[in-house]
């Protein structure tokens, strides 16, 4: 069975992990900072904070953005649930801004309407869907007008570029950007995530929150009588200055992440070559067409999504997926609109308020796209799908 996505591990990745195991420092060692520095330099940002998952990165980013009770976080309905959940974790409310039907990214017009309906919005979380960068200048200017902060969910978009040539993660149009290093994403750390920012105060807050809220760097100590004796800091002393979390990532994970990161450009080249062939195969098909067609050179191509007219083909998506599976082709749906989930329904979310997301969801199908997908396997995927959508 050809899966829809899969990581790619080589012997030098394994050696990098083994080296850490022999080094004596499994966590809180030098691999964490090496990984952070490498990503920060590549994307062109001042600070990077590695954490235990992309979800943890979103949670800390929401807190650092000031999301809390009485405030709202707005995200896209077509994303993984974690983008929205960050708002709830931080104690805030969550609202949605519908997608643009051509990019499958948050529509600036829909964001403007959602900001109007939610004047207490503190954070906007655009998601670079499948690796295609959102219209950041438009989103940033709406955020500025509303007094809200932008957190880019770039879990799909490591290696993607904006139209001005800068890289996703540089935070030119946002306060923070988050990445994920789950094995299905661009590079694997096992589990892992990162927040990037150019803001020094946000950086300090993130590294405190990552480790229980305990003072870090040269944070001033708050309780001088406990901290000092005769003007000298007590050698055992530390302070938990706010309620933080244990969201640290290990050196084992960062060694793997760093080794994989060295191959990112080669991974992206392979993904782009596969995408060009899928685009050529499905571009003119009336029953199944690529969901995104713009920005092909800019996207990091995390997913390849088709929009299939299951109704016109007198089939269901479930039957279609079963036929693919019977011929060894895995597929998946990205994503069930987040407001459709029971937790969000119970909070009053209405999926019908995002008609473009609803329509997209009814047709979406992700087909295999990963570095190790061979040319022969891809030909089999194309042939199998082309036969299934042929008029009978
Ligand atoms: C994978 C993903 C996340 C969460 O990342 P984890 O590392 O799995 O916690 C968040 N947002 C999007 C869009 C994702 O695809």
From TrEMBL:
Keywords tagged on the record: Aminotransferase, Pyridoxal phosphate, Transferase
Species assigned in the record: Denitromonas halophila
Chain's gene name: pseC
EC annotation from Swiss-Prot or TrEMBL: 2.6.1.92
PTM-bearing positions, type N6-(pyridoxal phosphate)lysine: 185
Protein name, as recorded: UDP-4-amino-4, 6-dideoxy-N-acetyl-beta-L-altrosamine transaminase
InterPro entries, sorted: DegT/StrS_aminotransferase (IPR000653), PseC (IPR020026), PyrdxlP-dep_Trfase (IPR015424), PyrdxlP-dep_Trfase_major (IPR015421), PyrdxlP-dep_Trfase_small (IPR015422)
Family assignment from sequence similarity: Belongs to the DegT/DnrJ/EryC1 family.
Coiled coil: none
Active-site annotation: 185 (proton acceptor)
Regions crossing the membrane: none
